[in-house]
Batch of 3 targets.
Target 1
Amino acid sequence: MNLNLYPFARIVLPFSLGIYLAHEQLSAFPFLLLFLFAPLLSEFHHRRSALLLNTLLCGFIYCGMLCYQTNNPMAGQKLFSQYQLNSIHGFKGIVTDEPKIGSSSSKAILEITAVKLNSRWVSANGYLLLVSKEKFPKKLQYGSQLFICERPCPIPDARNPGEFSPKIHYQKKGILFQTFVHEKNMQITNKFEGHLLIAESIQYRQKGINLLKKAGYRTGELALLTALVFGDDDHIEREISALYADTGVLHILSVSGLHIGIVILALQALLKLVLPSKSFDVLRGLLLVSAIWCYALLTGMSSPVVRACMMCTLFVAGGLMRRKSQAINLLCASAMVMLCVKPIWLFDVGFQLSFLAITGIFLAQPWIEKYTEHPSRLLKLVMQTSIASLAATLLTLPVCLSEFHRFSWYFIPANLLAIPLSTGIMYAIFLQLPLVMIGIPSAWMTMLITFLIRLMEQVLRLIAGLPCAVSDNIGISKPEIILLVIALISLLTFLYGLNKKPLYALLILLLLHQTWLVYHDYCLQAQRFLIVFSNSRNRHNGAAFIEGRQAIFYFTREESEPYKKQCIQNTCRVYEIRKYRAKEISGSKSSMISFTPSIKREDDLHKRVSSNVSAIQGKFLPVVMNKKGDTQKPKKAFFLRQAFILNLNNAKNPIVSQR
């Protein structure tokens, strides 16, 4: 692949590297030395041009770092480090997004404009997560200004190893703290401080959802249609979401590039029907771009939607200027514009999946054109969809494994069947909404769309029921992710240009991976941990003793089987355990006061950890041990939401039985 044809690829890669270095607070000095001194290894007559090029690349790295530091939402969190949390007694701010109302809690994001220190208000900036155990008042909407009399607290981390971490999730959005609100400690003013365009899009989205309710859809179908058309996936049941994830078609449930492509095809056909003459090319292009950006506003402006709209805008602009545009160039230019506006998008999972998937499809384009020439239109479409789905899945594999820890083996047949059905559902909805709006009966269309939704669900259930349909609980480390990404890019580059050089890089990467695996396995043999698990009731009713790649799990009998299974699977994935044993012990319902004596009687573990009793004393949360081996009831302050992890790498005696 000749990078000279893709100048934006040479810009966006070092720019993204600069954003990453600034986010991780790493020094760019080693990378700058690598870029500057690499030309010295080349021939003399190439050194000058290579040195100039690498100097420009170093400049783009610094531009990325500067852009992140300028537009970093985390910079606003300095107000919490400037003042002690106990000294902050209230906030004044603006709701920056539509509040999310769930079954158990409601959440909203507040942009802070002032904080109350003791008895005075001080201007400040930053973001805060509002959490309520009940529904927010109807008056609380996007752009509402409100006063809160409550202290902030850090967003909690995952309860146990390997579980979903709210702290990391909101940290990627630039939010580190939260506060619990209710009607008594919250005052909403009548002043609107948001953008009128976003407020109008939220209102029109709610009107569209009300039209779907008016059409007579049930709760399950309504939740899926709301996610499919308007991007609101908060009301989808966990079972349905897990079904789509197990079959590799979870992207259908959130508005992405696929949905924007469907909308673009529908709009192009409509505009050609209304404005067939070539003299209306400019007007058709402007109407198309305006319509897709309005739809993007309607769906919430997620990163995959913005990427698709940006590429469409650049493609239409190039066509109007009679300029031939390269697809990869458009992709890199879209990424560059998006990262300049919002650098934190680089760490958004939707952004990563969207760009990696479309990059894989573009790199596989020569193979799609070469091996899909067939007189049968249906067979040609099936082959094109299969190759595109395979290329997109391969390049998104590292992100999927690191974020979701699962892989669907039947993703090709699932996409071949689900994408046409979802496309038909969207086209039918676009036809039905105007009919419902003007009052024309459309019960037959409701029945048709409901049938298509249930058919798609039954097909996916059939695929998910096949043997070895999904591999879950897959663990992958950061070095493996980096090596896998480079290897997949090298492989697709070889397939794109049929050049042998990427194959050499692939062989070197495989050798490095095997070397790293040997070293990593050696490090794992020396790990020793004591983990005390925390359940949803903030009780510590389970523990794990880890030595090397073996573990013993203990749970009280009152804990449910799904909780035990989840703790064991997540711990085995995080610590890469190969052999484990799980046992039940007697424990009280209030806390694990009898936890430690039961362990001692059953496995005599107190002898194996006798050299660490002094380290465990005062730190072991549910039980405080003394020299006689008795237990003392701890204070309430010892009970925490998160699991307790004690590093026993310096232990002299083994803590896991080898039998």
Target 2
Amino acid sequence: MCMTCVHRSVRVHVRADAIFVREVEEGIMHVQAYFTTMPQDIYGTSDTDIDAITRDLITQVDNWNGRGSGFVIDRIVKFVLCVTKYRPLHGSSFIKTPEHIARKHCVVNVKNDDNMCFAWAILSCLYEPQYNKERISSYVKHKNSLNVEGLKFPLDIKSIPKFEQLNPTISVNVLSEDIESHGFCIEYLSTERDRQHHINLLVLDDGTSSNRHYVWIKDMSRLVANRTKHNGATYVCNSCLHPFSHSDLLTQHEPYCLRHPPQMVKYPDPQDPEKCILKFQAHKKQFHLPFYLICDFECFLTPTDNNDDDITCTRIIDEHNVSGFACYRVTDFDEYRTDPVVYSGENVMSEFYSHIMSESNALAKIIGAKVPMIPLTEQEQSSYDDAEQCVNCGQLFTETNWKVRHHCHVSGNFLFAACNNCNMQLKMTPMKRKSKKGTKPKNKKPRQSNSPHNNDDDECDSAEEDYVENYFLPVVFHNLKSYDAHFVIKHFEKKYVEQQRRKDGKITYDDVNVIPLNGEKYLMFQVGNLRFLDSFQFLSSSLDNLVSLLLKSGKGRFVHTTKYLGDDESVFAKGVYPYSYMTCRERFHETELPPIESFYDSLNEESLDVKDYERAQKIWSHFRIENLRQYHDHYLLSDVLLLTDVFENFRNTIFDNHRLDCLHFVTLLSVSVK
């Protein structure tokens, strides 16, 4: 079925890929070049300028070939005509004021029958009548008071500076509305200051055509009333649209807003020496997280069909499809340790998400139990009584920062005497999410405590009943940024962040946050309460090298590996895997280890070392592996356990030397900054 879309205006440009050749001593050199023409805006009364596109392409080809390289064009391999819907932002014919804005009585919308709505909106401000403000007849007599020489109507946004030059007593700001959110943004911010007349205009959009319409914003306070909870008129900044309750606050704000639109630098009070010294205050990051997950993926490398005639800078060799995952819960609490999970069945990524979500829920119940403190032994009580300063931060106890019995909320064991400030931070805090914005706790009873300074359980709980509680859970991959993250993001579904409100069963959704390097790579991303971290950002070497380095400290460092794989020499090195050979699930049924030729790395064009192949054969026999699926699962399990030992040793070293848990950070650099 063929469908035709009709638009009043479109934007057109051309992309062309061409092959250039030249003769060299070795034969013929081929180079691919890429060209893009300048976009053309096509309206209903104009046609596409084919000659201009041709001239643009010829000029670009001449410039490319004018470098003295001797290349000549051989052929065009791709020619794409890009046509996109274009809705230029300018005022034109009359558009009725939307009902939600009309109810605010904050704009004057002149009902014009021409393309001069910009001029009528300006005049409605300069010569506001007492009655009939929407009638064009109220302003006809003032039409010649504006200098519009050389301006083309309907007037677009980029022509407003010229209007301001022609009318030196007038400055103009233009706002537009987001149709979905009903929020406002500034389309044009005048650079002119302190002119006799400053006029704020709003561009209306009917949503169905390219028509736009300027109206005068008579009362900015009413227009952006939803930006504040203040009950009454506000004073609105014309640069950022932030409302203030008092005019003096706006006066203080404007110099900073105009000078530094994105931010305001605030210096410490020079009269307070304590505030002038930079000190470590992120004591929350000293809390040793009780649980986290170590994960890894493995993939089938399915060869792709390539057209050898096309010369491109990037050649696709294989398509990576996830074949299995391994996940291991890491904790210091023996009673909550579980065996690592390895899965290599169908729908791997769905199973992966289901597993980590179930792990998150299970751990939330454990942490949320908040085990009360076990009675102190005589030695612990004596240690607490004798303490004069916080064991964690070293600060002396005071009346405002008193001494507290700090204990583990998972085991209930007393840890040490801490100040109240550290005690409140050194614990797992729920990632609470309000069920409804602006709701306040109902029937909240005041806290009652007989000994407020002696137990860290005696703290004010301000969470509402409608809050959904979950806890921050790190999920660690090695080289997440460059590999595993692509699968996690690609297979994300909205249902994975779905939450049901306790009070009325309403469905809500958690946030997804990222720290991007670019559009394809992320240093960290967080899905709900699951924070995906890359161990490579802390230990920037291959797992094989990291294992070899740790092995120099002895096999005793590999607690998790030896627990599940034993202490045979073959397990203390990263396994070898026939990546290029494992092309599909049918390979899992093979009952013999493939020959050494099948371990050839086609990506790096490297053959497998004979000693490594002999180690693979030893692993096959030692662990009584019966088919390639079991070998695949063993490889995944080995990688996860080795990474656990490497990362745990690094994490404990950082904590012992710096009292910081690296799981609170994104990179090693961020740890060093603290």
Target 3
Amino acid sequence: MPALYSRVPSGEDSEQRSSGSRSSNTRWLIVVGFGVIGVFYLSMSVRSAGSMSTVTRYMPSSMTSFAHAEHDSLRDENRRLKEMLAAAEEAAQKAARQREAEATAKMASFAEAAWKPAAAAGGAGGAAAGPVSDNDFMKGIMRGLTATVENPAAAAASVGAKAESWMQAATAAVAPSLQQTLHTALAQSPPPPSAAAASSSSSLAGGGKKLDPADYRLTKERVKAHCDQHNIILVTFVNSKRADYAYTWAWHVRRLGLSNYLVGAMDGEALVKLVDRNIEAFDMESGLTTADYGWGTKNFRQLGLRKTELIINLLRAGADPVLTDADALITRDPSPFIVRLLPEAQVLVTSDHLASTTSHGDLELEEPQRAHPSAWNIGYMYLRHDVLPAMLHWQSECAAHPNLWDQNLFKDVLKIGGLKFKDPSVPEAVKQKRLFLGYNGTIKIGILPVSTFCSGHTYFVQRMPQRAGFEPFSVHTTFQYSGAVGKTHRLREAMMWLDEPEYYTPKLPGSSSGGGGGGALSGAQGFVSYDPDLVLAHALSKPAGVMDVVSHFKLVHHQLVQIRAAFLLARRLRRILILPKMVCGLDRFWAPHNGTIPGSDTKLPVDPCPADHVLDLEHIARAHKGTIEGLLREHSFLENPRLPTEVKSSRQAVAPPAALSESALDALRTPALRDVRVLHFGAMPDLYATLPAKEAEEEQRRMKEWTSMWCCSKPLGPKLPGHIWYDMFWDVIPHINRHAKVVSAPWEPSFGP
């Protein structure tokens, strides 16, 4: 037996032999085990060394055969892996070449589609709607194609055929309302009214007027008449449900003394409302819902298609539009900023980047290599009319992929061929202005500074322009948490919203008269305000990275007790509560974070903290006939310059009541105080604690869903929630929360539901 295997020594008795036999078996197994491990490592060494001769020289023949077989197996496996990797690499390269060829063909077809109608219009005696020089433009497009076409001459010769075949395929996938956009020169006449518009009355009654939609079509003449001396036109669009956003948008534009604007009406009622307000409007009857679109819904996606159609109309008319969403207010004339970037700049877009990369404040674009990875927000963008081919390309992608977000597709199209920042092909003048090349090197793009072309976060939470002393060019109500109601309230907090005079001196209908129940306050004309106790809030606040969730909730809870009492008091006095300024220890986001959104420049605490971070304004509105105006006003209400003097001067400081009983409130209902517009309390004690049990339960049922949630900590496990709901009655034990769960223990952080 080879020495590799151990044997039991001779000369021992039977018991010893029996015991030794068991010991021998154990030792045998151990030795064999180590032998197998040794063979494995030898084979691995063989695989690395590539030779067996030196390794097998001192091995038994059986082991040598085993090692050779293992070596051959590993060698074959290695060869198969190499072949698989080579095949995968070849397939990836082939797919890349195919995508590149498809993208190139699309670019060529859209260049042809954008050029042909303009040339035809010029040949017919009309003014060309396309670029100033069509030939130079086509040459520029074809120069750009050389980066991805091996034979540019052959590609140029086949442009017409490629364009025709691709456009036929695209048309089959495009909604009927967009077919004309892809096949006709929209510069000469806008598309005819949609089926919805055609079936409606040709005359729209409003304010005693009759409007013919044909008089408000978006003709080339109408567009050019509203461009400024730099060919820039400011454009937004709304439906009748959100016409108030257009009122506010147009108010800001006219406040700046600008007349180069137009507002699109997406339905007949919206057109009537805009014209009645003397707002420069045009008809873009969409056939879409007249209610809210709802982010991510089918109507939201269809709205993206209508937006691309509007853009193509404007570009074919030869205009350079600044197109914004209606909730992206223009608060400063953008033309001087844009002109400094001409003649190079062709696309300027806002960004959801949350940290400024500029060194000269509001005078330069963001540093493109640092800012470009963040989302490009097309809720505010400038487009020069010679980017029409790329916009046709974008429109086709939106039509072909109706379930994808038009904003993401916009960026995807402009990234075709890669984005070029410091490449030698980028002209020095482009680099100096912080522009970069996209769409296969044919379009010069810039990212507008986030400190002055503000998102909802950089303006309302980080307060970038306020901290730097800049006047923002725009404010977009993104990064908020209560739908349209929350957007409006944010703008009211910033004193940017255009309210009717009745908002400041209300006379509100309703049937409620104190005690339980809900609804607006009948005949309410006055307000309640108070000085919040923020000593604890500031004592608990800590810098970003140090502030913890428990401390954050302690300081918010302290404020909620006061807000709860103030709501109860205002309601019993038949007055409207002016919310206090709130302070939050942590920011809010849709994903886990350590107090502030990763990559942001947020300073903690968030002060003032937007009300929608803590209160569910959208739910409060739904529970009160779609509005919060009968219950509350924003914290800055008394500072608003639009507040009438009669309200500002009618303010009386009073002591808070000891309870909410009728007898305790009599002192606040005297004739002397009845006509005072604002009753101001120096403090707000916990008045809920004074309610009788039955009344307290009624208030719990009424108000338990008025608070929102904080988001988010890192979940404790996969597919588990990381958010924590605020609770208006966090300190009441027991109580039933908004999720119908009985709370029978003191509050502690609890994730979900």
